């Protein structure tokens, strides 16, 4: 499994509620029909726990998006599609900053 994980912050001047409404109601539906996209998951930040034994990183994040692909070829197909272009174009209207990672999933517990 190949995933793209993106940490998102809202545009300056937008409230968290405005960002989440746009992300869930306007942005997320645009992911339907992207070829090669296996799963799309929005992670809404509920809290920011810390540990007394490990310093906390300074990261600002309003949500984390996960795009899942079965193979790198599926990811490349998705990234080249007009459907992905629409998703990204819309994202630019509501996302203030983004930090993305492409990761390979290694399941330790659960899954197949």
**What is the averaged pLDDT score?**
94
Strand order of the largest sheet: 2-3-1-4
What is the N-to-C order of secondary-structure elements (H for helix, E for strand)?
EHEEHHE
How large is the count of helical segments?
3
Q: Helix/strand/pairing class, anyone?
A: alpha+beta
Largest sheet: 4 strands, antiparallel
- Spans with pLDDT under 50 lasting ≥5 residues? none
CA-based shape: globular
Number of strands: 4
Distance between the termini: 11 Å
Cα Rg: 15 Å
The share of residues in helices is 25-40%
Strand content: 25-35%
Your description of this structure?
By secondary structure, this protein is α+β, with helices and mostly antiparallel strands. Helix content is 29%, strand content 29%. The protein has three helices and four strands, in the order E-H-E-E-H-H-E. It has helices at 16-27, 72-79, 82-94; strands at residues 2-10, 39-44, 63-69, 95-104. A four-stranded antiparallel β-sheet has the order 2-3-1-4. The longest helix is centred in the last third of the chain and has 13 residues, at 82-94. It is globular, with a radius of gyration of 15 Å. The protein starts with a strand and ends in an 8-residue tail after the last strand.
Fold blueprint:
Blueprint (H helix, E strand, L loop, with lengths): L1 E9 L5 H12 L11 E6 L18 E7 L2 H8 L2 H13 E10 L8
Antiparallel strand pairs: 1-3, 1-4, 2-3
Helix pairs in contact: 1-3
């Amino acid at each position: 499994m190949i995933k793209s994980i993106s940490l998102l912050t809202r545009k300056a001047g937008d409230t968290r509620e405005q960002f989440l409404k746009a992300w869930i109601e306007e942005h997320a539906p645009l992911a339907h029909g992207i070829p090669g996209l296996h799963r799309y998951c929005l992670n809404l930040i509920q809290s920011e726990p810390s540990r007394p034994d490990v310093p906390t990183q300074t990261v600002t994040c309003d949500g984390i998006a996960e795009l899942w692909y079965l193979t790198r070829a599926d990811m490349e197909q998705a990234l080249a599609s007009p459907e992905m272009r629409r998703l990204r174009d819309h994202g630019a209207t509501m996302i203030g900053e983004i930090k993305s990672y492409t990761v390979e999933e290694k399941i330790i517990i659960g899954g197949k």
